[in-house]
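Progress report, Aim 2. The chain analyzed during this reporting quarter is listed below.
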Amino acid sequence: YSDWWLSKFLSVKWFRWLGRMSYTLYIWHGFLYIITEPLKDGLGAGPLTVLRFIVTFAICVPVHYKIERPMMNRKLKYASEKETVDINTGKMVEVVDGQVEGTVPPRN
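Predicted structure tokens for the chain:
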């Protein structure tokens, strides 16, 4: 429902970026929660929550762009599927001999 107000609202560039980052945030927030648990008594709940939020994003952004995205692009070299999702566009693309049709081959 592309004309629906909620669809338009969630299609804002920032929300789409957050959606792509969601798995990385999900994985790292738990680890950081455990690591920062000893700070609970000293900082208090409010400041600790803000600290966890900031540190989670500070770790997740470079992990997403420097590790996850290159690995997702690299997977095309070994893809056995006929179609896969292009992480740069979010659209289904055809894979022929480990290369996405119409794109530059990934760097090795």
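The longest strand covers residues 92-96. Residues 104-108 have pLDDT under 50 and may be disordered. These observations will guide the mutagenesis work planned for the next reporting period.
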